[in-house]
Write a structure and sequence with these properties.
By secondary structure, the chain is mainly beta. It is built from 2 helices and 34 strands. The strands form 8 sheets. A 6-stranded antiparallel sheet has the order 1-7-6-5-4-2, with no helix packed on it.
Length: 467
């Protein structure tokens, strides 16, 4: 049988000793000087602050000087779709649609890495975002407009697998800077003349950007002293960065968690208010150019597979949207009631009537010009009525087009350049010639000082098209 435990006087001495020790410790603490506390400020915990400055990748690339020299020319095509990003040349140089020899003289040509990236032109120099497969690196190249020789190149390592080519985007050039966005989302700012690195941001690392299928196709935009780009990341739909330093000026929230598309950003003025309009994966949004506030958004226009063409602005707050993959096109009107902005989809056009698989349409003198699925060039009026088509004998595939000297210059995806009169009356072919022998001639055209630069998958060519 188990015996009971004795509770003698020794047992009661233990809690008494503990109590005495606690009283002694408390009295000793009272004699110590008061503790000091450091206020925990934003940024002291190691997390990046939105306004703390540029978020730069921890590695840099390699700058290589070359023998080329800028041409003594002043014409400009400073980024995607030219000076006003409308695909229309304002160059005063007169052009010819009937070269005396029957073909435009080739000023120079050179091999480039597989891709569809177009060029920017400024101060006699040509800027191209290329890809070097052997080195597994993005390469920003500065070439002479006179002879195509390399003035400098800046390369940084990015492993990329072939997926219908690698490079896709057009650099933006303004003042002393050139800004590029690479296939995997590396936003890089370089000195335009020397190629020296100014700053760099990795959009997936900084914003949580998901790179779209077939890699990034968004062309960065420089607006005054700001670079405007849409990372469409976890918490940031669009951002403005100081072009000189990369410091954040503002960030737009991304409440619907839209992902990045291949489209670029339109700068529009609606009801006297400047705003950036972006077609992300999930819909269309308007962002205040002043402070980055999300002014309006709508999911009434979205494309199931890939959003590629950039919106274009019409009059009276109307925006023209188009796309491939059976999206067709649509007219969106943005109005304001007090402080509330309201986007309304006014009219849709069926895909077979008008849509654009890849290139962004042109609007000029009350007409819209573009290549619809199937490859025919189409002229629409501003209510969506077809004025004319190029017909089945004149198809252009996914090739690019610009408007210059009252003519439309269209490159088929097989390398045939056609010059067409820009008129709503009829399709009028003025001249055609083959300028490239490769495939997938999809890169945007560029024109300055009477020199037209085009590319296919692996070759860049510069033509003299001035009179």
């Amino acid at each position: 049988m188990r015996q009971p435990i004795s509770k003698g006087p020794v047992v009661w001495l233990i809690p008494l000793g503990v109590m005495i020790a606690l009283v002694w410790a408390f009295q000793a603490w009272l004699t110590l000087p008061p503790p000091s506390f450091e206020l925990r400020l934003p940024g002291n915990d190691g997390r990046p602050s939105v306004t703390a400055g540029p978020r730069i990748s921890p590695w840099k690339g390699t700058l290589t000087p070359g023998p080329g020299k800028p041409a003594p020319l002043s014409g400009s095509w400073p980024g995607f779709r030219g000076l006003l990003r409308d695909g229309i040349s304002s160059d005063p140089v007169a052009l010819t649609e009937h070269p005396a020899t029957g073909a435009y003289p080739v000023v120079w040509s050179r091999e480039v890495g597989e891709g569809h990236a177009g060029v920017a032109i400024s101060q006699g120099a040509v800027y191209l975002l290329d890809y070097d497969r052997a080195a597994q690196a993005d390469v920003v190249r500065c070439l002479s407009l006179a002879d195509g020789q390399e003035i400098w190149s800046y390369a940084y390592p990015v492993p990329i697998k072939r997926n219908h080519g690698m490079s896709r985007t057009v650099p933006a050039v303004a003042g002393k800077y050139v800004v590029t966005l690479g296939p995997k989302g590396h936003l890089v700012c370089l000195d335009r003349e020397t190629g020296a690195l100014q700053w760099m941001r990795d959009l997936p690392a900084v914003y949580g950007t998901t790179i779209p299928p077939w890699y990034a196709g968004q062309c960065p935009r420089i607006d005054g002293n700001r670079v405007i780009v849409a990372p469409a990341g976890t918490n940031c739909l669009m951002t403005a960065l100081e072009v000189a330093t990369g410091a954040t000026i503002w960030e737009t929230p991304n409440p619907a968690q839209w992902a990045m598309s291949h489209a670029s950003i339109l700068l529009a003025e609606v009801d006297g208010v400047r705003q950036y309009i972006y077609t992300g994966v999930g819909g269309v949004a308007g962002v205040s150019a002043n402070d980055g506030a999300l002014m309006w958004r709508t999911a009434d226009w979205k494309i199931s597979i890939a959003t590629i063409p950039t919106p274009i602005q019409l009059a009276d707050g109307r925006i023209f949207l188009s796309g491939g993959y059976n999206a067709g096109s649509a007219f969106l009107r943005v109005t304001r009631e007090g402080e509330v902005w309201i986007p309304r989809l006014e009219k849709r056009l069926a895909p077979l009537l008008f849509g654009t698989d890849q290139q962004t349409p042109l609007t000029w003198q009350g007409q819209i010009y573009g290549v619809r699925p199937g490859g025919e060039l189409v002229c629409l009026d501003l209510d969506g009525t077809v004025r004319w088509t190029s017909g089945p004998s004149n198809r252009f595939g996914l090739g690019p087009y610009i408007l210059a000297d009252r003519r439309i210059w269209v490159l088929s995806d097989t390398g045939i350049l056609r010059v067409i009169r820009a008129t709503p009356d009829r399709f009028e072919l003025l001249f055609e010639t083959r300028i490239l022998d490769g495939s997938d001639a999809w890169g945007p055209l560029a024109l300055a000082d009477g020199f037209l630069i085009a590319r296919d998958l692996t070759r860049l060519v510069c033509l003299q098209v001035r009179k």
